[in-house]
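Hi R.,

As promised, here are both runs. First protein below:
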Amino acid sequence: MISVILLGAGNVATHLFKALKKAENITVTQWYNRRLKSISIYQNTIEVTDNLNALKEADIYILAVSDDAIAELSSQLPFENRLVLHTSGSVNVHDMDKKNRRGVLYPLQTFSKNAEIDFSNVPICIETLHKPDYHTVKQLAIGLGSPTKKVNSDQRRALHMAAVFVNNFTNQLYRIGHEITETQGAEFELLKPLIMETAKKVQTISPYMAQTGPAKRGDENTIKIHLNQLTNKQHQEIYKLLTSSIQQTHGRKKL
């Protein structure tokens, strides 16, 4: 049985808590947050605290907090030589206080508080500074039902940056598409099968091979029509930038 103490109350912490509570061979003994109100709704199912000095002994302490809070919180922990993990995609494992054994449990997925997450679809990237700790963290991830991958800090940062492109930036493009359809009286709902098929394609072929559309074809007439239709200057600049990127990738004439 692996004992875990969770620190933090954001989206990642909340989903981790729910998944850890369901996992076999894992017990969550405490949940810490500096604002107790944020986790007080769970106090009937887990011991909650806002006092770092009240933290119990556990096999793993998970700092599921914002990137800029990791270093400070790790330095405030009132114990030494215990296994402390953070969940960030971009923070170096060495940024945590070296008084404890350090590692990373990075769930590579997007988390929203009101969206259910199946951890069997959440790859967990693992990094530890001490080899014996890797087995413990891997067992924790397996207990969540997650596929695991051993990565170093540079690889993890690359994955995190790529995730911003394929998730955050893509979602912003969805938002722009939603705005365009809404302002023109069209239905965004009609685009959802296209969104699903686009995501489905890259499961079997490379994004390079999956590319379609006017920029790839070199259809200058359609591109000009689209640019004339776009009344929002920011949307127009984004369209130009992405069109030029596709043209450069596929050897077409630039705008």
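And here is the second one, sequence first, then its structure tokens:
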Amino acid sequence: MTRTLVTGSAGRLGRSVVASLAQAGHEVIGIDVTPGTPPEAAVTLPADLTNLGEAYDVMARFRPDAVIHLAAIATPFSRTDGLTFRTNTQLAFNVCAAASSTGVGKVVVASSPTVIGYGAPGGWTPSYLPIDEEHPVAPWNAYNLSKVVAEQTMASFARSSETRFAAVRPCFVVAPEEWAGAPTQSGHTIVERLDRPDIAGASLFNYLDARDASDLISVLLERLPDLPNGEVFFAGAADALAREPLAELLPAVIPSTAAAAANLTGTSPAFTSAKAGRMLGWTPKRSWHTELETG
């Protein structure tokens, strides 16, 4: 049995990851300072991983085979900038350092599509659409800057240790209960995001079912030994969270995208997960068309 430690196990994505890994036969160790880790976790511990000593203690106590690092201040501007940057970067460093030093074989770090820089107050224009992993990053706030640093931290340990690392940029994560009307991480419901393009348009209409994200992470754990160390993957739904084609809708919300948006046809999203499909054989299974409960 593979022992897999999940940080942020009570979070929007963490809950689905814990359940998915447990169902696949992993012995899951949930680490989160807040309650809510699913009962599928074999053990739950409220450790503060911003403390390097606690991070080392957790790795030494449980000796996991793999670590899924999801813990973070998860949304921009939800806390002060200094706290967001300090927390997220310290978490990434501590988890990577402790895992590699104690012989953990595999580490997956959660990043964010926001590293691309959309929403910048001074304006933003994509280099091209759909956006892939080669697109330049342009962080402009503490949250997405912290995620760029997390990716670079992961990459630095990939270059200096035997542990196998990768990072995932999951699009706007939708937990299962949110399809039934529970508020999303922005505070709006999915129906509100569909009815008001100005809301979903701020993040380029991207989204991803938490269960699809969990499936990707499971596949990535299996394939890590065969991949170049330190790879980064976008993960998003196969369509956009929009009622109209993005070629028409996206320029209406963000005029600077007009030229690039012409390349998007039909229900195509602004982010492509083609790399994950090519290197991992992963494709998203769920769409708002099939998951949204409207009754």
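A quick note on the second one: The longest strand covers residues 164-170. Let me know what you think.

Best,
J.
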